[in-house]
Write a structure and sequence with these properties.
Layout (H helix, E strand, L loop, with lengths): L7 E5 L10 E4 L6 E5 L2 E2 L8 E3 L5 E3 L5 E2 L3 E9 L17 E3 L2 E3 L1 H12 L1 E2 L4 E2 L1 E5 L17 E16 L5 E12 L16 E4 L6 H9 L5 H7 L13 E4 L8
Antiparallel strand pairs: 1-2, 1-13, 3-8, 4-7, 5-6, 8-15, 9-10, 11-12, 13-14, 14-15, 16-17
Length: about 250
């Protein structure tokens, strides 16, 4: 038999998770169930984001129908009783600790929450999550951006169910569910950089509005409109991690 490989979940500040991890956790028990889901994203003309027409009127941003990024659901458990894993077993997780004189899963679950629920002040939002394990996971539906055994996303839901307690009331076994919504780097999406489609782009270090407009529209001349659409106080008010909308624009909207 080969060496057992455990699922690892790590948090990152960048959408493609190529930066150094902020924190990570190894699952004590590999998932007993993994579920993917894909949904059709309906055309939304009621978006709060608006473009400015030639006469200055506001108009809804047209968006093309598409499939939402894949969602991932993981179900696993954590056990501190010693029944599943003997005290000196290979699968012992260091985060199972004594609490109030007895074993408890609370320290492990605290770390799990820190990894999955952390709000990062540096990017002004929650961290992106990368899940690494096995062969079934896939980072995106785009062949150029795909990576076997890896899923990248943002947390949608973390649920915990305590189902066994010690005589002193310590939780010694719990089942948990993690739901993620997949993310795909805008630069590698199948839709490309067509100016006829709406794009949401994550700002990176060194980005500026003229260069981003050049990339999306083929011209730098739309940077003032993009600033207004995204309600930026200044064209220089970009911060890494910020999400910017680049809707379809034409020269008449300048």
């Amino acid at each position: 038999m080969g060496l057992v490989t455990k699922m690892i979940i790590s948090s990152h500040r960048t959408m493609d998770c190529s930066d150094a991890e902020v924190s990570s956790i190894t699952l004590q028990v590999n998932p007993e169930k993994i579920e993917f889901n894909w949904q059709l994203k309906e055309d939304d003309n009621s978006s709060s984001k608006e473009t400015l027409g030639a006469a200055g009127e506001s108009a809804p941003v047209p968006t093309a129908p598409s499939y939402q990024n894949a969602g991932l659901k993981i179900e696993s458990l954590i056990d501190a009783t010693g029944v599943l894993f003997p005290k000196n077993g290979e699968n012992k997780v260091s985060d199972i600790a004594l609490e109030d004189g007895g074993p408890s899963v609370a320290p492990y679950l605290k770390k799990l929450k820190q990894v999955c629920l952390n709000y990062d002040n540096e990017i002004h939002g929650p961290n992106y999550l990368k899940v690494v394990w096995g062969k079934v996971l896939l980072s995106s539906s785009n062949k150029e951006d795909s990576q076997e055994g890896v899923f990248k996303g943002t947390l949608k839901n973390l649920g915990v169910e305590f189902n066994l307690f010690s005589a002193s009331g310590n939780p010694v076994r719990a089942a948990f569910t993690i739901e993620l919504e997949g993310v795909i780097n805008p630069e590698t999406r199948d839709t490309g950089n067509s100016p006829d489609l709406s794009h949401v782009v994550e700002v990176k270090y060194g980005d500026n509005l003229p260069s981003l407009c050049k990339k999306i529209y083929g011209s730098t001349e739309f940077y003032m409109q993009v600033a207004r659409i995204n309600q930026l106080p200044s064209i220089y008010a970009l911060e890494p991690g910020m999400q910017l909308l680049f809707p379809p624009l034409d020269k008449n909207s300048r």
